[in-house]
């Protein structure tokens, strides 16, 4: 049987049995949570995933052996997570070495349950490291807490006063401290964080500008477009046309 014949046979089989794989957008969004260091969001996502598996869901068959099949999927996931994190600032050597450590653990696993547990460990470890990466240059406890609060509430229309109130600290004092340690104001950090997430969504997801604006707590679609254009020099749609599905992997391939 040729590759084309095998492909058509499997596609027909999946359609006939109403098999549904995880949505591509949901998978990419999970990698985005990890790369952004959104530990709380990732935990919520993994919890929702464990509760919402459709009865007819199954993974792609990479091996006739169930254990090997789970291992192969876990290894692919680990490789993709490592590259997403590199794209978002993790040191290449650290990311690849961490990936090697986890792949060896996956290889030694003796049950599918062990593989699943290691998979969750991979996601949480990378996500925690990406969260900590954003704090490396931070000295003050209040600035660390401010960054944590902003990242946890990034989908809300945040203000400096809201952040300061949440930390029970004077807004003027927090603003001066944040600017001194981070090199940008709290408002600029909030804006940059929202635009960074918006760029990720435009590169990898199909959400409209309105959906992204609502997701990130902008007052309106027009306000989101205005802020995005000022920050990137492009409208969201122009950015999507230029960068859609472009990742670190494709960029490196182009350079090679």
Spatial separation of the terminal alpha carbons:
34 Å
Estimate the global geometry from the Cα principal axes.
globular
Supply the number of helical segments: 14
Number of strands: 0
Instruction: Assign a percent range to the helix content.
Output: over 70%
Oligomer: single chain
Rg of Cα set:
21 Å
What percentage of amino acids are in beta strands?
A: under 5%
Task: Give the averaged pLDDT, no decimals.
Answer: 84
Elements, N to C (H/E): HHHHHHHHHHHHHH
Tally of distinct domains: 2
Q: Given the helix and strand composition, which structural class is it?
A: mainly alpha
Low-confidence stretches: 16-22, 247-256
Instruction: Note the main sheet.
Output: none
């Amino acid at each position: 049987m040729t590759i084309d014949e095998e492909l058509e046979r499997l596609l027909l089989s999946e359609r006939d049995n109403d098999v549904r794989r995880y949505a591509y957008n949901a998978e990419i969004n999970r990698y985005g949570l990890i790369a952004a260091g959104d530990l709380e969001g990732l935990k919520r996502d993994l919890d929702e995933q464990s509760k919402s598996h459709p009865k007819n869901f199954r993974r792609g068959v990479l091996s006739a052996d169930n254990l090997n099949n789970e291992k192969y999927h876990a290894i692919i996931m680990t490789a993709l997570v490592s590259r997403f994190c590199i794209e978002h600032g993790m040191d290449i050597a650290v990311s690849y070495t961490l990936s090697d450590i986890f792949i060896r653990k996956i290889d030694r696993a003796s049950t599918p349950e062990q593989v699943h547990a290691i998979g969750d460990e991979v996601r949480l470890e990378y996500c925690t490291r990406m969260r900590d990466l954003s704090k490396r240059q931070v000295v003050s406890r209040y600035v660390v807490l401010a960054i944590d609060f902003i990242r946890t509430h990034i989908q809300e229309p945040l203000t400096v006063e809201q952040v300061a109130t949440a930390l029970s600290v004077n807004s003027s004092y927090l603003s001066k401290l944040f600017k001194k340690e981070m090199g940008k104001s709290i408002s600029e950090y909030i804006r940059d964080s929202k635009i960074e997430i918006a760029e990720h969504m435009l590169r990898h997801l199909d959400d409209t500008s309105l959906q992204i604006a609502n997701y990130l707590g902008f007052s309106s679609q027009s306000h989101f477009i205005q802020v995005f254009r000022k920050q990137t020099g492009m409208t969201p749609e122009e950015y999507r046309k230029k960068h859609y599905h472009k990742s670190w992997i494709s960029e490196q391939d182009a350079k090679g």
